[in-house]
Design goal:
Number of helices of chain A: 19
Number of strands of chain B: 10
Strand content of chain A: 5-15%
Largest interface: A-B, 46 and 41 residues
CATH superfamily of chain B: Phosphohistidine domain
Distance between the termini of chain A: 61 Å
Number of strands of chain A: 13
Radius of gyration of chain A: 22 Å
Largest sheet of chain B: 8 strands, mixed
Helix content of chain A: 40-55%
Low-confidence stretches of chain A: none
Strand order of the largest sheet of chain B: 1-10-9-3-5-7-8-2
Mean pLDDT of chain B: 94
Distance between the termini of chain B: 6 Å
Radius of gyration of chain B: 13 Å
CATH class of the largest domain in chain A: Alpha Beta
Structural class of chain A: alpha/beta
Helix content of chain B: 25-40%
CATH class of chain B: Alpha Beta
Number of domains of chain B: 1
CATH topology of chain B: Glucose Oxidase, domain 1
Oligomer: heterodimer
Strand content of chain B: 25-35%
CATH topology of the largest domain in chain A: Aconitase, domain 3
Chain lengths: 430, 147
């Protein structure tokens, strides 16, 4: 078969089987993938990878068959990689015996086998399970301009936008193939042209917009295009400090899950918006104005998927994507104030915060006062993926609250803003 | 009256099947997950945000859509659906195919014995014209005859 991509002699040899039949299929997949988007060549991956598939869910057995084929062929990633969070943590996310049986034996019955596969393929370490691999305590932090082979929509949009690394919105498996080959086809967000904004978002709200709703509105409007966001620096500043990066993490995750955004620019704030200014906007860019009424309209459009919309909430998840170290401190203060306001000492419902294993260890060690406060309030800390945890018929029947627009999109959970969810969690009812 | 549209074959193939139409972005994970998890023999779309497709069967049909959206598990989910034989027979994109859908149909083509015929760039007129239940004939060169 004739290919349009220009291959080096080494790549040509791999395609012809010099490194075995499986490796030939790996490069063939990447060539077809690249050619679909007009890639003319492969470029070297310059930093460690991040994998989206972390869950040994039995229904995905075709995926585990591919990973086993890779292992049997002696293939592994060129550098140690991180991976999305595990789906279960019985110690901190309580399950009844039936749920436990279904999780361990049926739903995630392949977890142990899959984690063993990941170790053979080059997993970084036992703490490598987080969707927010780019956090300081986790350490999979690319540099501006690095070429990546990552998946996980929230991580890809963060690394492109906030760090300025270059990564396409790769699918699961494709990112693993790029890590194994050490190369990715060059197209779209890997090119200067592909990083130009096709939309101008004018933020004209009266106060700092809720990150999760702003991201949702942008994602639903621009789909996969690159937006340039004006007027947000007025509320979140022009410095990429911990608080601002946390805001951008949550906003970006909503743009990527409610739409398909892989990169956004924030005027006067994100690296390429600062470097290139308005030159990074396409001349024919469309304009979308977001004001208070538009955010209200978007929020009101979310359907309530609970069987009984007036039912009592069972559980509350905060932290999808995983919370940063700074956010754990902010939530501690927020709950402390709300408990005082309602004259209580403990939250009124099962409340779970999720963060990366490395961040949780650092929080316990370096901010023990706040960690102890959260535990005393009755709040549980875990490193699971609430999305994977909820993706089953048993959890689907529970009335779950969340402040995550990503979790809302993929599950039956119900979205509330940070302030609302704090009040409800303390009260124990809506 | 039948109407002809010309697109680009991403995964070339020939078939004549029934159309099922999403006028908005197709959220792959949200759409397939419930049927896949419940080990159903067909995919009944479970995306609560997609009023065009929610509750409809897409297995064996020509899924007509602008693009896919959502989680980067998307391609892997399309590949898995194909390996489990609960996939659409074809995916017909009015816009250029997105990276996740492309990964999915290519993985299905290279790593399974089955295939999803995929044609993109069919244009907005195609998506405006095609309706649920219409007969769609797809040719190797990316020609799509609707009705």
């Amino acid at each position: 078969m004739e290919y349009k991509m220009i291959l080096t002699p080494e790549e040509e040899a791999i395609l012809n089987g010099s490194q075995g039949e499986t490796m030939a299929k790996v490069i063939k997949t990447l060539i077809l993938y690249g050619e679909t988007f007009g890639a003319k060549r492969f470029v070297e991956v310059t930093a460690p990878g991040h994998l989206v598939t972390s869950f040994g869910i039995s229904i995905m057995s075709p995926v585990f068959n591919i990973t086993q084929e890779l292992i049997d062929a002696g293939l592994k990633a060129k550098a140690p990689f991180t991976v999305d969070p595990r789906p279960i943590d019985y110690a901190n996310v309580k399950c009844n015996p039936i749920e436990k049986l279904i999780f361990s034996k049926i739903l995630y019955g392949e977890q142990a086998r899959y984690e063993a596969q990941l170790r053979k393929l080059g997993l970084k370490d036992k703490n490598a399970f987080t969707c927010a691999c780019y956090l300081d305590d986790v350490g999979n932090i690319p540099k501006k301009g690095d070429i990546l082979s990552w998946a996980e929509s929230s991580a890809v949009v963060y690394t492109n936008s906030v760090i300025g690394a270059r990564c396409n919105r790769n699918s699961g498996i494709i990112e693993l193939f790029g890590m194994i080959l050490g190369k990715v086809p060059e197209f779209d967000l890997l090119t200067d042209e592909g990083r130009k904004a096709k939309w101008i978002i004018e933020v004209k709200t009266s106060k700092k917009p809720e990150a999760q709703i702003l991201g949702s509105a942008i994602g639903l409007k621009v789909m996969e295009d690159v937006p340039f966001i004006r007027g947000l620096d007025k509320f979140i500043g022009t410095t990429l400090d911990d608080e601002t990066k946390s805001y951008l993490k949550d906003m970006g995750a909503a743009t990527a899950s409610n739409g398909a955004v892989g990169l956004y620019h924030v005027e006067n704030l994100t690296p390429e918006a600062v470097e290139f200014g308005e030159d990074i906007i396409n001349k024919d860019a469309k304009v979308y104005v977001i004001d208070d009424a538009e955010l209200e309209r978007v929020k009101a459009s979310y359907p309530v998927m609970w069987k009984d919309p007036n039912g009592k909430p069972d559980r509350c998840f905060i932290g999808c994507p995983h919370l940063t170290f700074a956010q754990l401190g902010q939530w501690t203060a927020k709950f402390e104030a709300e408990l005082k306001k309602q004259g209580k000492t403990k939250v009124g419902m099962n409340t779970i915060m999720t963060t990366a294993p490395d961040v949780l260890e650092a929080f316990k060690k370096n901010d023990k006062a706040n960690y102890d406060k959260l535990i005393k309030m009755g709040i549980h800390l875990t490193s699971i993926c609430p999305l994977m945890y909820m993706n089953n018929p048993l959890c689907g029947k529970k009335n779950v609250l969340t402040n995550s627009n990503k979790l809302r999109t993929y599950t039956t959970s119900r979205y509330y803003t940070d302030d609302e969810i704090c009040e409800i969690a303390v009260k124990g009812d809506i | 009256m039948a109407k002809e549209f010309k697109g680009r074959p991403v995964i070339a193939g020939e078939c004549t099947v029934e159309a099922v139409v999403s006028r908005q972005g197709f959220n792959t994970l949200a759409s397939f997950q419930k049927s896949a998890l419940a080990k159903k023999k067909e995919t009944i779309v479970s995306d609560q945000n997609n009023s065009d497709l929610f509750g409809k069967n897409i297995t064996g049909k020509a899924l007509c859509l602008p693009q896919t959206i959502g989680s980067t598990t998307g391609g892997m989910v399309i590949y898995t659906a194909t390996a489990l034989k609960i996939h659409p027979r074809a995916m017909l994109f009015s816009e250029p195919i997105d990276s996740l859908a492309a990964a999915g149909v290519i993985l299905a083509d290279v790593w399974t014995n089955d295939t999803i015929t995929a044609v993109d760039n069919l244009g907005q007129e195609f998506l405006d014209y095609v309706q649920d239940g219409m007969k769609v004939e797809i040719k190797m060169d990316g020609t799509v005859i609707v009705g």
